[in-house]
Amino acid sequence: EETLKKKLVIEGLKKTAIFGNMSLFGYEEAWEKNGIKVDIFSSIFEGNSLVIGLWVKGKLYPCTMPMDRVAVYQWRGVLEVRIPFPVEDALIAMYGRNYPLPVDGWKWDVYPFLTGYCSYKYIT
Predict the structure, then answer these.
(1) Which of 63, 59, 70, 71 is nearest to 115 (CA)?
(2) How far apart are CA 80 and CA 7, in angstroms?
(3) Integer Cα distance of 40 and 30 in angstroms
(4) 109/106 Cα distance (integer angstroms)
(5) Which of 35, 41, 84, 103 is the most exposed place for a label (fewest CB within 10 A)?
(6) Cβ-contact 118, 62 below 8 angstroms
(7) For residue 30, what is the DSSP state?
(8) In which element (H, E) is residue 46 found?
(9) Cβ-contact 73, 62 below 8 angstroms
């Protein structure tokens, strides 16, 4: 965790928000640089699924995607990040079958529920 934080700071990103508690399910950090936002989520494994928590208006909702394993991806040639594999299955779960097509006005706090990625049943 400290290595990631150091690399983000070196690259000029600033932490703008923290959600949840690092020792519990649903921890998230928000970072930003030049108007570009990056959210880092903690996760848990349940069988062949990866589950993250999404905070909306102070409530924590579980969001689930299929995953066989974790792969390592070189982000912007600077930072190795862990991503779900197979990637396309995760993208379909998160954004729906039309994920390659941009959606005008994408609402991060609405569409994940409509695709079925996030459950309407909140945890806290």
Answers:
(1) 63
(2) 10
(3) 6
(4) 9
(5) 35
(6) yes
(7) E
(8) strand 43-46
(9) no
Q: In the structure encoding, which two tokens stand for residue 85, read together?
A: 């594999």
Q: What is the DSSP string of 51-113?
A: EEEEEETTEEEEEEEE-SEEEEEEETTTEEEEEEESHHHHHHHHH-TTTTS--TT--TTTHHH
pLDDT in tens, the chain (124 residues): 678 889 899 999 999 999 999 989 999 999 999 999 999 999 999 999 999 999 999 999 999 999 999 899 998 888 888 888 999 999 999 999 999 998 899 999 999 999 999 999 999 7
Tell me the pTM. 0.81
SS3 6: helix
